[in-house]
Amino acid sequence: MPMNQEYLKERLDYDPDTGIFRWRPIEVNRKQDKAWNTKYAGTRAGCIGQRTHRVITLDGTVFYAQRLVWLYIHGEWPKGEILHLNGKPADNRLGNLRDVPHKVIMNTRRDNTGLPEGVFNNNRRDMLRVFLPWGSKQKYLGQFEKVETAVWVIAEAKRIVAQGGGIDELTKLRKQVTERLQCR
User: Fold this and answer.
1) Is the pTM of this model over 0.90?
2) List of long-range contacts for 114-122, beta carbons under 8 Å, 24+ apart
3) Which of 106, 124, 148 is the last residue of a domain?
4) In terms of residue numbers, what domain contains 156?
5) What would the 3-class secondary structure string for 112-176 be?
6) 13 and 78 share a domain?
7) Three-class SS string for 40-85?
Protein backbone atom coordinates (compact mmCIF):
# COMPACT_ATOMS: atom_id res chain seq x y z
CA MET A 1 0.00 0.00 0.00
CA PRO A 2 1.46 3.40 -0.96
CA MET A 3 2.07 5.67 2.00
CA ASN A 4 -0.43 8.50 2.29
CA GLN A 5 -1.71 10.79 5.04
CA GLU A 6 -4.81 8.70 5.76
CA TYR A 7 -2.88 5.46 6.26
CA LEU A 8 -0.17 7.22 8.27
CA LYS A 9 -2.79 8.62 10.67
CA GLU A 10 -4.26 5.12 11.08
CA ARG A 11 -0.89 3.79 12.20
CA LEU A 12 0.69 6.68 14.12
CA ASP A 13 -0.19 9.63 16.35
CA TYR A 14 1.99 12.72 16.11
CA ASP A 15 2.41 15.47 18.70
CA PRO A 16 3.63 18.68 16.97
CA ASP A 17 4.77 20.20 20.28
CA THR A 18 7.13 17.34 21.16
CA GLY A 19 7.83 16.01 17.67
CA ILE A 20 7.12 12.46 18.83
CA PHE A 21 5.30 9.77 16.87
CA ARG A 22 3.52 7.05 18.87
CA TRP A 23 2.10 3.79 17.55
CA ARG A 24 -1.69 3.57 17.44
CA PRO A 25 -3.46 0.33 18.29
CA ILE A 26 -4.30 -1.76 15.25
CA GLU A 27 -7.59 -3.52 14.61
CA VAL A 28 -7.49 -6.98 16.18
CA ASN A 29 -8.15 -9.59 13.51
CA ARG A 30 -5.56 -12.14 14.56
CA LYS A 31 -3.83 -13.26 17.73
CA GLN A 32 -0.64 -11.49 16.60
CA ASP A 33 -2.53 -8.17 16.37
CA LYS A 34 -3.48 -8.34 20.04
CA ALA A 35 0.11 -9.15 20.98
CA TRP A 36 1.35 -6.26 18.83
CA ASN A 37 -1.07 -3.86 20.54
CA THR A 38 0.04 -5.04 23.97
CA LYS A 39 3.69 -4.54 23.14
CA TYR A 40 3.73 -1.42 20.93
CA ALA A 41 0.49 0.62 21.04
CA GLY A 42 1.20 3.98 22.70
CA THR A 43 4.98 3.57 22.61
CA ARG A 44 7.34 5.88 20.76
CA ALA A 45 7.78 4.87 17.15
CA GLY A 46 11.14 4.38 15.47
CA CYS A 47 14.73 4.69 16.56
CA ILE A 48 17.73 6.91 15.94
CA GLY A 49 19.42 5.84 12.70
CA GLN A 50 23.05 6.02 11.64
CA ARG A 51 22.88 9.69 10.65
CA THR A 52 21.26 10.73 13.99
CA HIS A 53 17.87 11.16 12.31
CA ARG A 54 14.89 9.28 13.74
CA VAL A 55 13.69 6.56 11.37
CA ILE A 56 10.40 4.67 11.44
CA THR A 57 9.68 1.39 9.68
CA LEU A 58 6.15 1.01 8.34
CA ASP A 59 5.15 -2.16 6.49
CA GLY A 60 8.79 -3.05 5.87
CA THR A 61 9.79 0.38 4.49
CA VAL A 62 12.10 2.70 6.43
CA PHE A 63 11.15 6.40 6.47
CA TYR A 64 12.83 9.43 7.99
CA ALA A 65 10.49 10.69 10.72
CA GLN A 66 10.83 14.32 9.58
CA ARG A 67 9.42 13.38 6.16
CA LEU A 68 6.54 11.53 7.81
CA VAL A 69 5.80 14.67 9.87
CA TRP A 70 5.42 16.63 6.65
CA LEU A 71 3.09 14.03 5.16
CA TYR A 72 1.11 13.75 8.42
CA ILE A 73 0.53 17.52 8.72
CA HIS A 74 0.41 18.73 5.11
CA GLY A 75 -1.00 15.66 3.35
CA GLU A 76 1.84 15.53 0.82
CA TRP A 77 5.49 14.56 0.74
CA PRO A 78 7.96 17.44 1.03
CA LYS A 79 9.04 18.85 -2.32
CA GLY A 80 12.68 19.16 -1.22
CA GLU A 81 14.45 18.05 1.93
CA ILE A 82 13.53 18.76 5.52
CA LEU A 83 15.78 21.24 7.33
CA HIS A 84 15.95 21.08 11.14
CA LEU A 85 16.23 24.76 12.10
CA ASN A 86 18.04 24.08 15.37
CA GLY A 87 20.49 21.68 13.70
CA LYS A 88 19.32 18.67 15.75
CA PRO A 89 18.25 15.95 13.31
CA ALA A 90 16.24 14.01 15.89
CA ASP A 91 14.15 17.07 16.91
CA ASN A 92 11.01 16.67 14.80
CA ARG A 93 8.80 19.33 16.38
CA LEU A 94 6.70 20.94 13.67
CA GLY A 95 8.07 24.43 14.38
CA ASN A 96 11.63 23.14 13.88
CA LEU A 97 11.06 21.78 10.34
CA ARG A 98 11.17 23.49 6.94
CA ASP A 99 10.83 22.04 3.44
CA VAL A 100 13.82 23.41 1.50
CA PRO A 101 15.72 22.59 -1.70
CA HIS A 102 18.73 20.24 -1.38
CA LYS A 103 21.08 23.17 -2.09
CA VAL A 104 20.00 24.88 1.15
CA ILE A 105 20.73 21.72 3.15
CA MET A 106 24.24 21.53 1.68
CA ASN A 107 24.90 25.20 2.51
CA THR A 108 23.82 24.76 6.15
CA ARG A 109 25.79 21.59 6.81
CA ARG A 110 27.88 21.90 9.90
CA ASP A 111 31.51 20.94 9.77
CA ASN A 112 32.90 20.06 13.19
CA THR A 113 36.47 20.84 12.10
CA GLY A 114 36.01 24.54 12.83
CA LEU A 115 37.20 25.46 9.34
CA PRO A 116 35.62 28.36 7.43
CA GLU A 117 32.89 27.71 4.86
CA GLY A 118 34.33 26.22 1.68
CA VAL A 119 37.52 24.94 3.35
CA PHE A 120 37.86 21.20 3.95
CA ASN A 121 40.57 18.91 5.31
CA ASN A 122 42.34 16.64 2.86
CA ASN A 123 43.60 14.18 5.44
CA ARG A 124 45.62 12.18 2.93
CA ARG A 125 47.97 15.06 2.15
CA ASP A 126 47.67 17.14 5.32
CA MET A 127 46.39 20.03 3.20
CA LEU A 128 43.25 22.16 3.04
CA ARG A 129 41.03 21.90 -0.02
CA VAL A 130 39.12 25.02 -1.04
CA PHE A 131 35.80 25.10 -2.91
CA LEU A 132 33.44 27.93 -3.86
CA PRO A 133 29.70 27.20 -4.19
CA TRP A 134 28.85 27.53 -7.90
CA GLY A 135 25.15 27.12 -8.66
CA SER A 136 24.21 23.63 -7.55
CA LYS A 137 27.88 22.52 -7.67
CA GLN A 138 31.20 23.64 -6.25
CA LYS A 139 34.23 25.09 -8.05
CA TYR A 140 37.56 23.65 -6.86
CA LEU A 141 40.03 26.44 -6.07
CA GLY A 142 43.07 24.45 -4.92
CA GLN A 143 44.85 22.95 -1.92
CA PHE A 144 46.79 24.96 0.62
CA GLU A 145 48.79 24.36 3.78
CA LYS A 146 47.60 27.39 5.76
CA VAL A 147 44.07 28.37 6.75
CA GLU A 148 44.93 32.04 6.12
CA THR A 149 45.76 31.30 2.49
CA ALA A 150 42.57 29.25 2.03
CA VAL A 151 40.46 32.06 3.54
CA TRP A 152 42.15 34.65 1.31
CA VAL A 153 41.48 32.53 -1.80
CA ILE A 154 37.79 32.14 -0.88
CA ALA A 155 37.45 35.90 -0.26
CA GLU A 156 39.21 36.72 -3.53
CA ALA A 157 37.01 34.24 -5.44
CA LYS A 158 33.85 35.77 -3.94
CA ARG A 159 35.10 39.24 -4.93
CA ILE A 160 35.67 38.05 -8.50
CA VAL A 161 32.20 36.54 -8.70
CA ALA A 162 30.60 39.66 -7.20
CA GLN A 163 32.25 41.73 -9.95
CA GLY A 164 30.70 39.50 -12.60
CA GLY A 165 33.66 37.18 -13.13
CA GLY A 166 33.13 33.59 -14.19
CA ILE A 167 34.86 30.24 -14.32
CA ASP A 168 37.76 31.55 -16.45
CA GLU A 169 38.64 34.22 -13.88
CA LEU A 170 38.44 31.70 -11.03
CA THR A 171 40.74 29.34 -12.93
CA LYS A 172 43.23 32.19 -13.43
CA LEU A 173 43.07 32.95 -9.69
CA ARG A 174 43.81 29.33 -8.86
CA LYS A 175 46.82 29.26 -11.20
CA GLN A 176 48.18 32.58 -9.88
CA VAL A 177 47.94 31.49 -6.25
CA THR A 178 49.51 28.10 -6.98
CA GLU A 179 52.42 29.72 -8.89
CA ARG A 180 52.99 32.28 -6.13
CA LEU A 181 53.11 29.60 -3.45
CA GLN A 182 55.60 27.50 -5.43
CA CYS A 183 57.99 30.46 -5.71
CA ARG A 184 58.38 30.75 -1.94
Assistant:
1) no
2) 115/147, 115/150, 116/147, 116/150, 116/151, 116/154, 117/154, 118/150, 118/154, 119/147, 119/150, 119/151, 119/154
3) 106
4) 111-183
5) CCCCCCCEEEECCCCEEEEEEEECCEEEEEEEECCHHHHHHHHHHHHHHHHCCCCHHHHHHHHHH
6) yes
7) HCCCECCEECCCCCEEEEECCEEEEHHHHHHHHHHCCCCCCEEEEC
**How many C-beta atoms surround the C-beta of residue 73 within 10 A?**
13
Domain boundary at 73, 91, 106, which?
106
Is residue 109's pLDDT more than 70? no
Q: What is the pLDDT of residues 36-93, one digit of tens each?
A: 889 999 999 999 876 678 999 998 899 999 999 999 999 999 998 898 888 788 899 9
- The whole-angstrom distance between residue 171's C-alpha and the CA centroid of its chain comes to 30
Number of folded domains that form the chain: 2
AA identity, residue 82:
I
How far apart (Å, rounded) are the C-alpha atoms in residues 177 and 38? 67
